[in-house]
């Protein structure tokens, strides 16, 4: 009997594809026995370059932060932004007293007041179910924190369960507890749509802030222009989208490197950017005395243990570099990188254009694209920097001339 596709080995799956031998060989060489166990229909690993943000000061401590990203200039910009923030004393993190994930049991067609009263009456049972379902998280000091009935529309209701998952990201913990809680709502069975966590992590709101002296920016005029750009992005969703994308260049690179779910973090961030019905930038820059002051508030759900984090050596190695004492500390570190990333981008725009620095990094990628060897790359990049207009055709011409 023929195997089903998911039952094949990685090499058997590659053989199923119509690939040149050298492509199959390259994909085979990037395979990992460990990663084969993490996803279905595995064929190979897709490697992303990882670089270092060197020594950003967060709550008076220097932290080295690996960043995994393929886009040129991001890590250079993050280091530049970190230096600016370091010059003003570094980044300060404001953390809630207790962070938690939120899970929902969703109802359609029920009466809100009836459901709300049911939840109020059965608080003790709901908390006991959670404790019996996941005793391990209670042993670590976590567990169900609060239950709230929330009216969505005239005939839609959500019962929100706030659950402290400690240093785990917690999706599996929350979903396991929710599925157990559903049994108590048997009389509302026909109205239940489902039970699942939400990635909108509003119980994990973290704020980071930092100051930069005008001299480090290049003068008060640059600072004032950054403030104006920040105000513009609060009013214009076109600018806000680009600014938030740049912010997530930094945030996503750290989230990915630490084995966390960058898609969940970005989705939550974009939802928060739209909380008042108008999409806005997530950072705010103002002038305080003789300094530029920046703040970033974001709901961010990450972990330092459990799930894929514990299964991937790459993630464990990165966490060994960062050395966060807890998931909450990692949240602050990730957002500090985001603030630095945003500052660097705004300074580049305010001080004369972002493309100049961006293109210097793109030249390396272009040199590789046209086939430059590692030995040829420095000279080709140097020549490209002197050109007013650069494209692949021009880069190829210069490379061929070099080889004569």
From TrEMBL:
CDD domains: HMG-CoA_reductase_classII. One of its GO terms (molecular function) is hydroxymethylglutaryl-CoA reductase (NADH) activity. Pathway: Metabolic intermediate metabolism; (R)-mevalonate degradation; (S)-3-hydroxy-3-methylglutaryl-CoA from (R)-mevalonate: step 1/1. The keyword Oxidoreductase applies. Its EC number is 1.1.1.88. It comes from the Bacteria. Keywords: NAD, Oxidoreductase. It catalyses: (R)-mevalonate + 2 NAD(+) + CoA = (3S)-3-hydroxy-3-methylglutaryl-CoA + 2 NADH + 2 H(+). Transmembrane segments: none annotated. Pfam families: HMG-CoA_red (PF00368). The keyword NAD applies. Signal peptide: none annotated. PANTHER family: 3-HYDROXY-3-METHYLGLUTARYL-COENZYME A REDUCTASE. Belongs to the HMG-CoA reductase family. This is 3-hydroxy-3-methylglutaryl coenzyme A reductase. It comes from Leuconostoc aquikimchii.
């Amino acid at each position: 009997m023929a195997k089903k596709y998911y039952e094949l080995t990685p090499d058997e799956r590659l053989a199923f594809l119509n690939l040149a031998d050298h492509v199959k060989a390259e994909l085979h060489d990037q395979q990992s026995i460990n990663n084969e166990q993490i996803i279905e229909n595995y064929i190979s690993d897709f490697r992303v370059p990882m670089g270092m943000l060197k020594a950003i000061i967060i709550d008076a401590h220097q932290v080295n932060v690996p960043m995994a990203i393929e886009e040129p200039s991001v890590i250079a910009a993050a280091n530049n932004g970190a230096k600016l923030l370091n010059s003003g004393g570094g980044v300060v993190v404001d953390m809630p007293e207790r962070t938690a994930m939120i899970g929902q049991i969703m109802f359609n067609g029920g009466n809100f007041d009836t459901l709300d009263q049911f939840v109020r009456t059965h608080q003790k049972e709901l908390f006991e179910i959670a404790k019996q379902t996941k005793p391990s998280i209670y042993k670590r000091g976590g567990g169900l924190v609060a239950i709230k009935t929330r009216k969505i529309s005239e005939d839609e209701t959500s019962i929100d369960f706030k659950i402290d998952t400690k240093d785990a990201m917690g999706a599996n913990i929350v979903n396991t507890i929710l599925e157990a809680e559903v049994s108590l709502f048997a009389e509302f069975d026909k109205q239940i749509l489902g039970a699942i966590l939400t990635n909108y992590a509003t119980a994990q709101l973290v704020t980071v802030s930092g100051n930069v002296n005008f001299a480090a920016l290049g003068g008060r005029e640059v600072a004032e222009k950054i403030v104006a750009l920040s105000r513009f992005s609060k009013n214009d969703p076109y600018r806000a989208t680009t600014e938030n994308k740049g912010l997530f260049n930094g945030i996503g690179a750290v989230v990915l490197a630490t084995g966390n779910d960058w898609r969940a973090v970005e989705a939550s961030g974009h939802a928060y950017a739209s909380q008042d019905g108008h999409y806005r930038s997530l950072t705010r820059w103002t002038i305080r005395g003789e300094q530029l002051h920046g703040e970033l508030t974001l709901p961010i759900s990450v972990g330092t243990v459990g799930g894929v984090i514990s299964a991937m050596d790459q993630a464990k190695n990165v966490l060994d570099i960062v050395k966060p004492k807890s998931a909450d500390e990692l949240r602050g570190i990730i957002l500090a990188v985001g603030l630095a990333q945003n500052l660097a981008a705004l300074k580049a725009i305010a001080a004369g254009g972002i493309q100049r620095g961006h293109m210097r990094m793109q030249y390396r990628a272009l040199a590789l694209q046209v086939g430059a060897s590692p030995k040829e790359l420095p000279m080709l990049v140097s020549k490209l920097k002197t050109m007013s207009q650069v494209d692949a055709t021009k880069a190829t011409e210069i490379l061929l001339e070099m080889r004569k």
